[in-house]
Amino acid sequence: MQRAFMIGIVAMVFGATLISANAATLPAPAKLCPLIAATAMEGNTTAPKWLASGKFYSCDSAGMISPGGAGNIFMTEYHAAGTAKAHASRIYIKFKMYDSAPQKDEVAKPILSRITAVFAAAKAGPVPDELVQAINDVATASVSTALGTIRTRYTPGSAADSPNNGAMFEVQLDVP
Questions:
Q1: Fewer CB near the last or first residue (10 Å), C or N of the chain?
Q2: Is pTM, for the whole model, over 0.85?
């Protein structure tokens, strides 16, 4: 009897350790939405609000970045969503590139600044190196983090002679 009791205690402590190790959650929508929003430099002048749409809640923001001058344009979308009024469970960022040459640093900077801000606000520790590398490389990856799985995806444009023109880079975080 005493041995069964001790095994039960050990199992409870081990289970609590596992739960607390993955206990990071996204910040409240009132804080999250402005963290991921398009900036004034991207043409955004109002902070997105967490709004209900049917059974779902979301905040959306879009903008445009023109790195390197005329002819180079990135269309940006920032989105957070969830099924609860006070809790987001997904972040989605999309960059659509209209550029003749890859400008990975121009794509990575605004994405990493937002992801880093979200991790800091969630007290989720540093952004994992593997995720930083995937974003810096504008590469497809799937990375487990303290907040959940983050998937990055690069899709080249359809023109073989200019694969960066019309290319997309997406980052999606799904919180369990």
A1: N
A2: no
76 within 8 A of 133, measured Cβ to Cβ: no
Edge-to-edge strand list for the sheet holding 56-65: 51-53, 56-65, 73-82, 90-98, 167-174, 149-155, 141-144
* Residues 37 and 16: beta-carbon distance below 8 Å: no
The pLDDT tens digits for 67-120 are 776 668 899 999 999 999 999 999 999 999 988 776 888 899 999 999 999 999
Q: Is residue 135 part of a domain?
A: yes
3-state secondary structure 78-93: EEEEECECCECCEEEE
How many separate domains does the chain show? 1
- For the record, the structure tokens of 151 come out as 């998937």
Pairing of β 56-65 and β 73-82: antiparallel
149 occurs within a structural domain: yes
Please name which of 109, 95, 62, 117 lies closest in space to residue 164, comparing C-alpha atoms.
Answer: 95
Of the candidates 122, 148, 144, 121, the residue with the CA atom closest to the CA atom of residue 131: 144
Per the structure, the complete domain to which residue 54 belongs is given by 25-174
Per residue, the 3-state secondary structure of 64-121, as one string, reads EECCCCCCCEEEEEEEEEECECCECCEEEEEEEEECCCCCHHHHHHHHHHHHHHHHHH
Q: Per the domain annotation, does 3 fall within a domain?
A: no
